[in-house]
Amino acid sequence: MLRISSLAFAGLISFSLSAQQDAGGFPCATGDDALLEQLTGGDPEALARIAATQAELEAFTTAFGEVEMDGERATHIIPVVFHIIHNNGSENIGNAQIIDAMRILNEDYSRTNPDWSNAHPSFVGIAANVDVEFRLAKKDPNGNCTNGITRTVSSLTNQGDNAMKALIQWPRNRYLNVWVCAQPNGSSSVLGYALLPSAAQWFPTQDGIVIRHNCLGTVGTGITNFSRTLTHEVGHWINLEHPWGPTNNPGVASNCNSDDGVADTPNTIGWQTCNVNGSSCNSLDNVENFMEYSFCSKMFTNGQKTRMIAALNSTTAQRNQLSQAQNLSFTGVTSPDVPCAAVFSPSPVTICAGGTVTFNDQSYHGITQRNWSFPGGTPSSSTQANPVVTYNAPGVYAVSLTVGDGSTQVSSTLNGHVTVLAAPGAAVPVMEGFEPYANFDASPWTVVNPNGNNTWSITNAAAFSGDKSTRILNTAAMNGQTDDLISGTYDMSSAQQVVVTYRYAYAQRNSGSDDRLRVYVSNNCGATWSMRQQLRGTQTLNTVGAPMTASFVPNGQGQWGYSEVNNIAPIYHVNNFRLRFEFESYGGNNIYLDDININGQPVGVEEIALGGGGLLVVPNPAAGQAQAVIHLDKAGRTELDLIDVLGRTIATPYQGHMAAGTHRMDLPIGGLTSGVYFLRLRTGMVEKVARFIVE
Fold first, then answer.
1. Maximal C-alpha separation, the chain
2. pLDDT of residue 496
3. What is the DSSP secondary-structure string of 542-558?
4. Distance CA 217, CA 107 (A)
5. What is the rounded average pLDDT of the residues 53-71?
6. Is the predicted pLDDT of residue 36 greater than 80, yes or no?
7. Around 159, how many Cα atoms within 13 Å sit in the side-chain half-sphere?
8. Which residues are designated catalytic?
């Protein structure tokens, strides 16, 4: 049955966009109205054009279904490209998950899915082989070799909207674009959505499917119960509606008066449970249809097949151009497999000496032969698809791969692809002020900048002590992005207590700026991390008071904060301890770090006396680096002075209010000559003096 051509305004909005949600009875989080509003802005003329296009396509579909077909219809081949939009989270799914999703999609559209014959007996006889095959593109729009998968780093993965689509799209008359993201349309409940051809006709740059990463395939992050989401959304993309008609609201009694334009799908209110004997509109419902929300879908009907094939033969949204022989050749999907790219990935990319790395070959196309080279590794070469290699010595290593099919070969070499850290690591205590380095390349620190935006860099614009610090020039454009500063390895195996202290400076850009600085530690060379501290822009991270719209540069020590991380359990007293600072931008102002100290207090060092306040210098004797360990029974105005043997005050490392408890801070002894010195603590009516030696 065909829907009447005079559509109500709400109907117009709902049929032009379709979305699928998770089970549980909740309506689609945004609804079709909001999705179409994003495209048209509610412009009546735009809505009228879409309605007219829909009417034309309905007329074409009716005529197409009445034409006598000679013999079997040829299979329509559709080139596909998956755009994985990710922010280096779980949404950055592997190639194997895409391949598995393509397997399920092709089984469902060719009626080779193993469960189709288990559908209700009343519908098995009309279960359709749609005669549509989907193939990953082998050539990109510029004629270059591709595996049909692109990857783009962007925080827009959490918006999953038109702005995300604008990051990358291949021509819609040559490829079916599928955008994979964390949250379609910014919702935690929407699984996917697509433009119907009538709306896509007028918005070509938005044409395609947006889908949540865990709704693809059954491997990786894929959830089996959601693995038919792509089948469902492709149905919308080629002009299928839900069996209850042009809304996203199943289970409503009035849906019995609506229709999906397909004669052999009975009118239904729509299902979100798998009641295969459901009869909601006085006839048995096709609950197991791929366009239902029942999550037990198994089939399309012959009527749905006719409707989809009609859409693929229509000029509406250029659907008829996709399966033309010329386009299949242009996209490479009918060309023989020829090796054209040697691609591989290691896991993990950073290990400690004695660890192993698994290399995964992702080369394409038609690869039958592999030759790996692993300088510095064991084995040093391999012909396996996914070899496992051990690295025993610290260093940075290159990896090479040559692949072929017996007649054609391609090669790839990546220098500095594997980093092997020392185990045991560097001795402690460590006092890092970034003074020796022009940049991080020659330092023991690693910067992770997944978005390729501003990130941690060494600067002489400001410092708490010395001349340098590290900072991120944080901007509003970086909202949602994270950047990491990760240490090398340190030997904490003989530590009795591990304490990390550091100086930081940060300003809000406005009162709502809630940027986050987090501190993580690892006891397995960085394989896993545990968060030990978080400072937030609206709480403890701000060091200057009022927000600043100008680019923040701290003006003196008074605009720096001090923080101590002392909740590091004994399980982290290992010889490959690592430290990580993670900054998550919420569009605030700049962040600075300086004087990062890691003090693994060795067994045998005198513990601080707690009663009445205490003062200790560690290590003692000291050579180039030392820390003051201070314990206050109660908060108060505190002054810390460094005094030579003649009683002269040569430095005042701290002057200000200090909270009750135990604190650690650096002492500026780097330029002192060898000899005896004193550290004096004054707080309230209490004065303590500690004697120490500089070697």
1. 110
2. 84
3. --SSS--SSPP---SGG
4. 12
5. 79
6. no
7. 14
8. 233
- What does the alpha-carbon distance between residue 211 and residue 160 come to, in Å, rounded to a whole number? 8
Contact 148, 177 (CB under 8 A): no
Cβ-based neighbours of 617, under 8 Å, separated by 6 or more: 626, 627, 628, 629, 667, 679, 690, 692
Contact call for residues 479 and 155 (beta carbons, < 8 A):
yes
Residues 105, 231 contacting (CB under 8 angstroms): yes
Tell me the C-alpha distance between 449 and 515, whole Å.
Answer: 16
Which is it for the CA torsion 313, 319, 324, 328, positive or negative?
negative
Residue 626 has pLDDT above 90, yes or no: no
CB atoms near residue 84 (< 10 Å): 24
pTM, whole model, 2 decimals? 0.80
pLDDT at 470: 98
Q: Specify whether the CB–CB gap between 674 and 695 falls below 8 A.
A: yes
Provide the token pair at 143.
């004629």
Burial class (CB within 10 angstroms; exposed 0-12, middle 13-18, buried 19+) of 204: middle
pLDDT at 416: 86
CB distance 133 to 400 below 8 Å = no
Secondary structure letter of residue 69 according to DSSP: P
Distance of CA 163 to the CA centre of its chain: 17
Per the listing, tokens 């999906």 go with 260
The answer to whether the beta carbons of residues 448 and 520 sit under 8 Å apart is no
Q: What are phi and psi of 340, to 5 degrees?
A: -140, -10
Would you list the DSSP string of 170-219? --TTT-EEEEEESSGGG-SSEEEEEE-HHHHTT-GGG-SEEEEGGGS-SS
Give the C-alpha separation, 502 to 627, whole Å. 12
CA–CA gap between residue 406 and residue 408 (Å, rounded) = 6
d(CA 53, CA 201): 8
Q: Are 152 and 91 in contact (CB under 8 A)?
A: no
CB atoms within 10 A of CB 503: 24
Residue 251's nearest CA partner among 227, 289, 276, 281 is 281
- Distance between CA 313 and CA 261 in Å, rounded? 17
Q: How many angstroms separate the CA atoms of 618 and 595, rounded?
A: 16
Q: Are 591 and 471 in contact (CB under 8 A)?
A: yes
